[in-house]
Amino acid sequence: MFALTTLLYPLVFATLCVGSGLLVDRCSGGWLPAMLLPAVGAAALVALSQLTTYEPFLAAATPYAMAAVAAAGLALGWPRLLGFARHRRAARWQLVAPVLAYAIALAPVLAAGRPSFSSYLTLSDSAFHMMGADFLLRHGQDYAHLDLRNSYGLYLENYYDSGYPSGADTLFGGSAFLLGLPLIWAFQPFNACVLAVAAGPAWLLARRLGLGGGWAALAALAASVPALVYGYELIGSIKEIASVATILTLGALVAIHPRWLRGRPAGAIPFALVAAAGVSTLGLGFGAWVLASAAILAVVLGREIAAAPARARWRSLGLIAVAALVTLLAALPTWSEATKSLSTAQGIAATNGPGNLASPLKDVQLLGIWLAGSYKHPPTGGDLAVTYVLVGATVAAAVLGALAVVRRREYALAGWLALTLVVWVVVTEDSTTWVRAKTLMLSTPVVVLIAWAGVAAVRASAFKRAAPLLAIALLGGAIASDAMQYHTSNLAPTARYRELEAIDRRFAGRGPTLFTDFDEYSLYALRDLDVGGPNFIYPPPALRGARTRYRYPVELDRLAPASLRSYPLIVTRRDPALARPPSSYRLLWQGTYYQVWGRRPGAPAAIATVGLSGSRRQRCARIARLAARARRADADLVAAGSPRIVRIALHRSSHPRSWGPVRKGLLLSTPGRLSAVFDIPRAGIWDVWLEGQIMPTVKVSVDGRALGSIAEQLGGNSVVLNTTTPLPVHLSAGRHRLSVARAGFTLAPGEGGSAALYGLFLSPARGAEQPLRRVTPGRWRALCAVSEEWVEAVPR
Q1: How far apart are CA 535 and CA 619, in angstroms?
Q2: For 556-601, how does the pLDDT look when each residue is reduced to its tens digit (9 = 90+)?
Q3: At how many degrees (to 10) do helices 433-459 and 183-208 cross?
Q4: N vs C: which end of the chain shows fewer Cβ within 10 Å?
């Protein structure tokens, strides 16, 4: 799967884009530069996939339609490909930037050597895009048949049936489905592919700014992966990353306008397709960038008409007519839902929520350099000083670049650069923190290219020997910024999601399923089980009154027994410290991370359930009240036995002072070792469990014996106290010492990522299903003398 997603998939994606670009080039008169073919082809594929999914009966054919369009383009454009191959030596620099951009964007996954996606725990929107892309490719844009009784259907309705832009999702889904790839593993490679596509128009713009050969390649690379763009790519902001390529392509088309504005009306097709793809991908808000580009082209057309009124007028009208028609058709699904789309755009623009941002981003991040582990946090110490030195160099280069563009009489390009920055200023003036941050990111590649125009100006001046130093500062600053984010990037736990995929295949169609863990990616991984949970943003209506907080695991004894009747399956996290599901469920399957429980045929639902936390007196009082109720209802009492747990107090352990407190645990912020003693009541095989979020490698040992290493084990959310994989060990009765050590610095991805330890405990390594005890109401006191998790009143 790793080779398929990271090597074969990008080749297939590139082939689809180039082939589609060649077809568009043929239809528009054969004027497109080679470096714009992938970007224009991607725009055409967005339009195609939007149209095929708009009609539900065509949705499943989307991958094959994309392949057919690409094949037609490759057949018709074969002479161009042969010409490109003959001149491959001269064109070698054109391929450097896209290949390096892809490698840098996917670096965390490539270095890990396993299928995954990056910056896990930072933003879960990518879960909805995986779920949406899968649904759109299977069912199309038809939401009438969604089951709104559970979270899966409610998420899809609230996102995609509300005019949410889905252009990037249908491109993603169609290209991945062509190879039959799980979207969860193709997601990060897709984002990396899109950034590689953005390097094409960035290279062409760099050429127009006065750079050639390797210089243009370096500039294109810097514009494709500046710090802020890289940060958004790591968190899987699929809409915004796809829009980077679209905005740069609009700029490139403006820069080379003489190639098509003076030709046949069909020459407007690429511009129209790119504009439509941007609207389909980012929503109606993308119109600001389209208007900026169209304004420059309108000025150029006005000058053409003034110079040759009769001839230019008809050509201009033809261009406008073709552009309008293609834009209308290519984004038809968005235009047809314009009211919903506008409402969604206004809702996003008006929301006061900062998303995953604790504070607004700094305007200085526009310059593409930010020496911090995250774009959300400021640099500190020496990194802060170096950041602002590099920022100063970038500002100076940008000033020189802006002047150089005007001196080169690239007036159309200069106008586009200026208006693009005006869009940034206008949009961010009265926008919310979240919208401001996105606009800042989308504007960053433009500013970086202006700075590289400054490098071109220095190369052409008497100070040309300073040009390499300036280039090193610009590109080195961006790569160093990306490297720091790479090091702190959290990678999704591959093994755990593979286990969820296995559960989905094994029990497909047997839902609805109650999912007690909190993990929004489960909505995709368990998509065939109709998942629901009261801790999701959109809880099932039947469970909305449950005493369960958003993002926290579900405590089953807090749910009304009647509310569980519609759930034949319950999927729980494997954790001996958690109470088992109600007595009407039995264990069907157990893996490393999860357990699947099924309702026994004909098993009656409990009349009532009580949890048994607190003192013995409090527990007995609850059992007495439940027994009285059971006696009236002719029911028995059924209790779930509590497993024997040996907990280790973190606050009594010895550990580095730098491991400060976080919630109820420790933040393992630096290399070091924790040591703690514990007592085992009887000899035997015990499982050692760690609770927390562990991305970097942590070594566990008992009495000096190494039990193993734990790494890359993260829960669905940073607040969830999930357990990691248990480590078995044979222990004698008595006192022992446990050690948990975090290693020093390495170049592995995520070694600077999350490392929070919330708890340590041991449990006997035995059967997974906790025993049940059944007594009559008259013998309720027998349940006070033993440790139980909960007691139910169950009809006889």
Answers
A1: 26
A2: 878 888 888 889 999 999 988 888 899 899 999 999 999 999 999 8
A3: 40
A4: C
- Which residue do the tokens 């600053």 mark? 477
Residue 532 phi, psi dihedral angles, 5° rounding:
-140, 155
Supply 98's token pair: 């896209």
Sort strands 585-590 and 594-599 into parallel, antiparallel or unpaired.
antiparallel
Alpha-carbon distance 227 to 94, whole Å?
Answer: 22
- Stated as kind and residue range, the H or E segment containing 758 is strand 755-764
C-alpha distance across the termini of the chain, in Å:
51
β-bridge mates for residue 792, sequence order = 609, 638
DSSP state letters, 538-565? S--GGGTTSS--TTSPP-GGGS-GGGGT
Q: Tell me how far apart the alpha carbons of residues 452 and 215 are, in angstroms, rounded to a whole number.
A: 9
User: Is 566 strand, coil or helix?
Assistant: coil
3.30.420.280, 2.60.120.260, 1.10.10.60, 3.30.700.30: CATH of 646-764: 2.60.120.260
Please state, in angstroms and rounded to a whole number, the distance separating the CA atoms of residues 796 and 607: 11
Q: Where are the domains of the chain?
A: 8-348+363-488, 494-605, 646-764
Give the range among 103-112, 345-354, 718-727 with minimum mean pLDDT. Answer: 345-354
Compute the distance between CA of residue 783 and CA of residue 117 in angstroms, rounded to an integer: 48
User: Token digits for 436?
Assistant: 């401001």
- pTM reported for the whole predicted model: 0.93
DSSP 140-164: -S--TT--TTSHHHHHHHHHHTTT-
* Mean pLDDT (the chain, rounded): 89
Q: Distance between CA atoms of 151 and 531, rounded to whole angstroms?
A: 6
**Cα Rg for the chain, rounded, in angstroms?**
30
- Distance (Å, whole) CA 233 – CA 239: 10
Q: What span, in angstroms and rounded, lies between the C-alpha atoms of 183 and 175?
A: 10
Find, among 526, 481, 125, the residue nearest to 117 by Cα. Answer: 125
457 within 8 A of 469, measured Cβ to Cβ:
no
Structure tokens at 23: 């077809």
Tokens of 132: 């949406």
Element (H, E) at 773: strand 772-775
> CB-based burial of residue 767 (10 Å sphere; 0-12 exposed, 13-18 middle, 19+ buried)?
exposed
Question: Closest by alpha carbon to 521, among 107, 236, 723?
Answer: 236
Contact 345, 165 (CB under 8 A): no
Q: Return phi, psi of residue 526, to 5°.
A: -110, 35
How many whole angstroms separate alpha carbon 671 and alpha carbon 673? Answer: 7
